[in-house]
Every structure is written in structure tokens, then in C-alpha cells.
Amino acid sequence: MQPGPSARRALAISSRSYRSRIRTLLDRGDRAYAHGEAEALAGVARELIAEVPRALQYDLVAVAELALLDLDAALLRWVQVSGRIRPDVAD
Fold first, then answer.
1. pLDDT of residue 2
2. Tell me: the pLDDT tens digits for 17-69?
3. Where are the domains of the chain?
4. pLDDT band at 8, cuts 50/70/90?
5. Nearest of 20, 33, 88 to residue 63 by alpha carbon
6. Is 91 helix (H, G, I), strand (E, B) or coil?
7. Of the candidates 53, 61, 58, 37, which has an alpha carbon nearest to the alpha carbon of residue 88?
8. Among 61, 62, 53, which residue's Cα sits nearest to residue 84?
9. Do residues 36 and 14 touch, judged by C-beta distance below 8 A?
10. Which of the pair, 14 or 76, is modelled with greater confidence?
11. Which 3-state string (H, E, C) describes 23-84?
12. 6 has pLDDT over 80
């Protein structure tokens, strides 16, 4: 059974909303990165954990933990993981 037009529209909106939320979190993480804000970066990484595939979750856990221990290492890891997430939520 094919979903009706309203169901398809709801799926598209939900998907757009999901991508928008992830892009917003990535932008917040980039701002934290640019300003060297360890706690903000850790918070964004924690929020993203539940939103991405498991392989990326481990990297985000590392960012969150490293941000409070070794900000330089966390920033490097952020660039890597956010670069892997961003293409999946592009318009």
C-alpha cells in the first residue's frame, strides 16, 4: 500500500526538519570551534550523538570528552566528524 499525498508530504517535512536540526547543531558546533568554547562544543557533540549513525556516534563521544580535556584534539576531531555529517544533511 502506497502512502497517500499527505503522508508523503509529512515524510518530506519531517526529513527537511531533521536535516535543518542537524545543520543548526553543526553550525553551533562550528561557532564553538571558532571561539574555542569547549563546553559549547561538548554540548553540541552530545546532542548530535543520538541523531547520527553509530560509526559517527563514537567520534562525537570523543569530541565531547576531549573538549573538556584537550581542546586542540577535540577541535581536530570536530572538523573530521562534522565534515562526514554535513554532506548527509545538505539540501
1. 45
2. 889 999 999 999 999 999 999 999 999 999 999 999 999 999 999 999 999 99
3. 5-89
4. very low
5. 33
6. coil
7. 53
8. 53
9. no
10. 76
11. HHHHHHHHHHHHHCCHHHHHHHHHHHHCCCCHHHHHHHHHHHHHHHHCHHHHHHHHHHHHHH
12. no
Q: What is the pLDDT of residue 90?
A: 86
The C-alpha R_g of the chain, in whole angstroms, comes to 15
Task: For residue 70, give the nearest of 31, 29, 25, 36 by alpha carbon.
Answer: 36
The C-alpha cell 573538549 sits at 67
CA distance 82 to 87: 9
Name the grid cell of 73.
584534539
Note the pLDDT of residue 24. 96
